[in-house]
Amino acid sequence: MRSLYGSGQHCEPRAARCPIGSVHVARLAFFDLDGTLADRQSALSDALTQLCRSRALSPDAELWLRTALADRATASDFARLREAFGLKASAAALWQEYVDLMAAAVTCRPEVLEGLARLRAAAWTIGVITNGAGDIQRAKLAGTGLADLVDGVAASGDLEIRKPDRRLFELGATRCGVSLADGGWMVGDNPTGDIGGGQRAGLRTIWLRGRPWPDELAAPRHVVDDVTDAITILLNETE
Question: 118 and 231 share a domain?
Fold first, then answer.
């Protein structure tokens, strides 16, 4: 299947062929957080609207903030905001307010929570591997109810390394009380970070289609439209 993204043409990868024969793979499933389990973009718009209103930020400051935080947010962004616009509030206070607002605004669909609960009931170990500051990513997990369904979390801010670095996956495995030696799965929407990173870590991969696919990247095991489809694939692996 071919797909067009933006102004450039990118071929969507074909799912990798499964080798003949049975290979044991641990019931270990890692998931990306933003854009896979949780809807960051909708939450971001709501949280920034509230933050700008509560702090009476100027239109220029609001535009700066929305641009800076479009893909990722860290405490240093708020230090730069404070300096650029001469805000009286401390960077720490601004960051914490943003974290709290994001935790309140972010959502995870009920069917996704139900699917993860089914995986746990089927004796799967579930981890989250996410690029982002540890405090805000864990706040999102708590705010959505996902924290009760995962065994371990590795955020890039914990080690100052980012997906696709294998070390972040190793940290996730350790925090889940398992090893990457027996394999497992990685599910995510970012071709390089999630799929490429999962492959580097020796994991089978499931890609949520949508972003441009790099020509040089090996194909994932499966390509799906929604994370619930990925969960169904994993549950079928259990049978």
Answer: yes
The whole domain housing 193 covers: 18-39+108-238
Tell me the whole-structure pTM to 2 decimals: 0.88
118 in the same domain as 33: yes
Sign of CA dihedral 22, 174, 123, 37: negative
- pLDDT of 239 reads 57
Among residues 84, 105, 126, which one ends one of the domains? Answer: 105
The SS3 call for residue 30 is strand
Intra-chain end-to-end CA distance of the chain, in Å:
29
pLDDT 10s digits, 113-149: 999 999 999 999 999 999 999 999 999 999 999 999 9
Contact partners, residue 36, CB within 8 Å, separation at least 6: 187, 188, 189, 194, 208, 227
